[in-house]
Amino acid sequence: MKRMIFLLYAIISAGLAPGQCQGPNTPFYDGEKIRMDVYYHWGPLWLKAARVEVSARVSSANGKKTWELQATGHTLPSYDWFFKVRDTFSVSILQDGFIPLNALRKTSEGGFISYGYYQFDAENNQVFITSYNNKRPFEKKRLSVNGCTYDLLSGAYFARTLDYTKKKPGEKIPISLVVDNQIYDVFFTFEGSDIITLRDGTQRRAWRFTAPTLEGTVFKGNEIITVWTTDDGTNLPLKVEAKILVGSVQAFTLP
Q1: pTM score, two decimals?
Q2: Secondary element (H or E) of residue 159
């Protein structure tokens, strides 16, 4: 789900110079896969409604090593009648400097279909966008960006490369993102350490982050998302909570 990927990137930091966007670590690996189950709050019940899957693999482009990332989100058949989602994201990123090369987004959410293809030109600080949706035909657009602007998926992975042990609770973190055909300069807050209860009832220590939502087909906008991640340097998402247009959702990473 497009806005579920937004949940995963809510822990991004910025403020580094162009060409120096990557953090000190690369905690993910070739062949890594992350799966999250999404639960919808219906009255007194939490119903499993969707699945998000994200993967990383090593490849190359023009003789340079790249990360090829892909994310899919889909509602379960039992939930499709209420709000059907079929989303796919992919992005190619240079390993040296963690610079996005191109990204693709195809989303279908509650009957609203959207497509976007992004070509990043880091040398000239530009991104070229080809997009369309149900309400308008194909549109081509060129936007000026800074050297550390990401699409949603590359931003989520960039977040995992950063060292949050140097952040202070309450610290606001800026980031520049290209979403649909616009640039968003937004802020997130590092809330510090927390103890959370996972879906199986176990408890563990985690980093906690909060972020405002972007208005769209799932969120109202200006609501608060809470994201918990591992505090072991891998910065894997563990749990997400958010209000949506109708009700609320939780997401948990599967073992």
Answers
A1: 0.85
A2: helix 152-159
